[in-house]
Amino acid sequence: EKLLTECTLHTTARPPKGVCNPYTGIKTNLLFFTKGTPTKDVWFYEPQYPAGYKSYSKTRPMRIEEFAVEEAWWGREADGFAARVENEFAWKVSLDELKARNWNLDCKNPHVGEQISHDPD
């Protein structure tokens, strides 16, 4: 709550599972803050595996080229990321909604139907 009301959490990026393998198999969230002004909305972005990939590993890590799509979407902080638009991998959640969720940042992608996980984790 304190970070959201004293800083701007402008983006939460959720790389695919395995991006931090072999160090951890836990899903990773990257939080991008700007100090000084309160959060109004939080953008969520879920980068996808490249074609032909089902997971990342030590021998098949995430490559810098894979950030090109996200970089094109990212926009400029100076204009408040005005160029950002929602798409199947990006969505925005208001501070009021996060507050109603008791500050829980585990916001599911609204552009994806109900997901059934067959992952034993």
The average pLDDT is: 86
Provide the helix percentage. Answer: 10-25%
- The best one-word shape is globular
User: Which secondary-structure class do the elements indicate?
Assistant: alpha+beta
The SSE order reads HEEEHEH
Q: How many strand segments?
A: 4
Family: Belongs to the N(4)/N(6)-methyltransferase family.
Domain DNA methylase adenine-specific: 2-118
GO molecular function, one term: DNA binding
InterPro entries: DNA_methylase_A-5, SAM-dependent_MTases_sf
Provide a descriptive summary of the structure in words.
With 121 residues, the chain is α+β, with helices and mostly antiparallel strands. The chain has one domain (2-100). It has three helices and four strands; from the N terminus they run H-E-E-E-H-E-H. Strands 2-1-3-4 form a four-stranded mixed β-sheet. The radius of gyration is 15 Å and the shape is globular. The chain starts with a helix and ends in a 21-residue tail after the last helix. The relative contact order is 0.20. The model has no long low-confidence stretch (mean pLDDT 86). One of its GO terms (biological process) is methylation. Keywords: Methyltransferase, Transferase.
